[in-house]
Every structure is written in structure tokens, then in C-alpha cells.
Amino acid sequence: MRVLAAMSGGVDSAVAAARAVDAGHEVVGVHLALSAKPGTLRTGSRGCCTIEDSGDARRAADILGIPFYIWDFAERFTEEVIETFVGEYAAGRTPNPCVTCNEKIKFEALLDKAMALGFDAVATGHYARLSLVDGVPELRRSVDSGKDQSYVLASLTPEQLRHSLFPLGDSWKTDVRAEAESRGLSVAKKPDSHDICFIPDGDTKSFLEKRLGQRPGQLVDAETGAVLGEHTGVHGFTVGQRKGLGIEAPAPDGRPRYVLSLEPVSGTVKVGSARDLGVNVIEANRPIWPSERPLDGPTECVVQVRAHGGIVEAVAEVSGDSVTIQLREPLRGVAPGQVVVLYRTDAAEGDLVLGSAKISGTR
Fold first, then answer.
1. Disulfide-capable partner of 268 in 19, 238, 252, 263 (CB 3.0 to 4.6 Å)?
2. Residue ranges of the tRNA-specific 2-thiouridylase MnmA-like C-terminal domain (predicted)?
3. Could you read off the pLDDT of 192-201 as tens digits, one per residue?
């Protein structure tokens, strides 16, 4: 096959490209320039898509002996990922930009361009297992549960998955680094990037305030309705947040307060105790079924609401374009705008992704 290897400049994508070459594919490497003003250097493990990263990707491609190109996707990344991120926070929702990036950039924009140029598939360094069973994609958790990225890939369509390769799904991260070193790849010990790539300093509140300005509102006790303080915008908060609330007086019982809900129209941030954070039912919409098999009646499953954590057993049922999920035990920190992913636990073959949907409400 003709395979386009997405090379971020990190160790995972470099080894994924190497394995695609070893598999006998005709491989071409591509680095996506996602920032109009890339920084010269990374700061430790923060940020990505810098000039340093593009250079690392090019050097890896040279060692592998494959052609290498840089494609400018900065404008589309800004429109599809950054502006969506800002808009979701302004609306009082909690987005996951990595999910959006995978969906709109790496497996829509990139894959569409690759297919138009005659490639058969795109290979990435994601940790997830993918197989085709009678032509039907089956997406499963990675062998390395600590690095599993099936959550951020669960919004891909069956057609996108049919043209995707995840060569690292059966590997542990430590083995991938060792393999990179044995291949002479200089990125073998390069730190993983973390946080949001377009907010390398990790200060999401300041990033949003620069774009949205200040939108003053009140911090209100959800139980009594008492005004506890003022804030500069609901975009500075997320459901489940405990620190940085700006409330001077402690709760009557001396226990911490948490953000329970956000009301962007009125500018109200409701806060309360930890016991009020628990969610028993999740309502979600716009479901995607990677294996082309929508749920048929109430279905026992395991749900995940964050890329790392927020996992609990549940029963899910579909009605039209909506999914209602009854949790077996309360889950904290669940917010509209997050993606919920449904898994079927299979002890023999590993967790299979049944589908994903966007959380619209909780109770």
C-alpha cells in the first residue's frame, strides 16, 4: 500500500513510520504545520508543532530513507480546533481539543488530501489497536493501558478507520523508546508533549480571556442561592473544578466547594459540595459507531468521559440521534461538551469501542 505517515516530530510517530516501512509499504512522511507562528524550541514536554519538531521529523524520515514533506494546515487548525475550543468554553461547555484535532485535522483534512493524492492509508503513532473483520473496522484499547488513545479516536467514522493504520497498538511505550534508540532515531528520549498544544504554558484561563475578554458574573451557592463572589467569565471554569474559584469565605461545614454548573447567558457559576458533583445519568447526542453497529436496545457497557480516567460501568440506550446512559455508580466531573465513549469489555481480545457521542446534559 501507499501509506502517508503523519510525523509529529516525536518518538511515537517516528517508530510508527518505521514499522510501516518494515511492513513493506511505500511510505511518505509528512509533518503538519499547525501554527502560523511556531515557536523556535519546545519547553521541556510542553507544546508541540514547533520548528524543532519539524526538524526532528525530517531527520527521522532521512534515517528511514523515505520522502518527507511539510503541509501547512495552520489556517484550518485555527478554524476547526482553536476557534471551536474558544467557542465551546464561551458557551459553558468543556471541549477536548485533541478529539477535535483527530476528527477534523488528522483524519479528515489529512486523510482527505492523502486519498486525493492516491495514498491508501494514513499511519499515525496513536496507541490503539485497529483491525478489519470482514471489512468492518474494530477499534480497541491499546495493550499499554497507560498510553491508550482509543478515547480520542472513537469519534472517527468507519470509512476513516478503513484507511488508518496504528502500528503501535500492540506495544508498550518503553518498548517503543527502546526500538527508536536501536534504530538510531534521535527522538528516542524526547519527552512526550502534554497539555493543550496551542497553550504551551498551560494557562488556559489566560488564553481564553485574551480571546473572549472579561464577562463578569456571580459565583452562587447552588443550595442556598447566596452570592459568594464575582468572576470575570464562565470560560474560566470547568465542572468539577475546586481550586482557583476566588471565594474568600469557606463553606459552613469547612469542606471544599466545587463548580457544579455553568450558565453562560446569565454568567452564573454555581458551586456546591462534593456530594452534589455525582452524576447518575448522561445524555449525549450525535453518536458515531466506528464498527457500523448502533446499539440495539439497552446495552451493558463501560463508559469513559475523559482521555485519562472517568471510567465506569453503565447501561446505554439509543433513541434516534440521542444516547441515554445510566451509570452503575455516580461519576464526578462530567460536563456538557465532553465526549463519552462506550466500550464493550472483552477479556480475551480487549475493550472494543462501541461508539462515541457528545455529552449534552447530566442528572
1. 263
2. 282-359
3. 876 688 887 8
Q: Are 353 and 341 in contact (CB under 8 A)?
A: yes
Whole-angstrom distance, CA of residue 340 vs CA of residue 355: 9
- pLDDT at residue 191 is higher than 50: yes
Reading the block at residue 346, the C-alpha cell is 472483552
Pick the closest to residue 50 from 204, 197, 203, 210 (CA basis): 197
DSSP 250: P
First to last CA, the chain: 48
Q: Which residue has the cell 476557534?
A: 83
Other Cβ atoms within 10 Å of 265 Cβ, number: 9
Lookup: cell for 301: 457497557
Q: Is 221 helix (H, G, I), strand (E, B) or coil?
A: strand
Q: How far apart are CA 90 and CA 211, in angstroms?
A: 10
Which H or E element spans position 140? Answer: strand 136-141
- Rounded Cα–Cα distance for residues 175 and 314 (Å): 34
Rounded Cα distance, 270 and 253, in Å: 18
Q: Is 115 annotated as a binding residue?
A: no
* Residue 243: DSSP 8-state: S
Catalytic residues: 101, 197
C-alpha cell at position 25: 509499504
What structural domains and CATH numbers belong to the chain? 2-125+167-189 (3.40.50.620), 214-276 (2.30.30.280), 279-362 (2.40.30.10)
CA pair distance 101, 80, nearest whole angstrom: 8
The answer to whether the CB of 31 falls within 8 A of the CB of 196 is: no
Q: Is 32 annotated as a binding residue?
A: yes
Nearest to 173 by CA among 137, 196, 203, 143: 143
More confident residue, 250 or 272: 272
The conformation of residue 239, written as its DSSP 8-state character, comes to: T
201 marked as part of a ligand binding site:
no
Residues 49-69 pLDDT 10s: 677 889 999 999 999 999 999
pLDDT at residue 30 greater than cutoff 80: yes
Amino acid 228: pLDDT: 95
Residues making up the chain, counted from first to last: 363
Confirm or deny that 6 is annotated as ligand binding.
Answer: yes
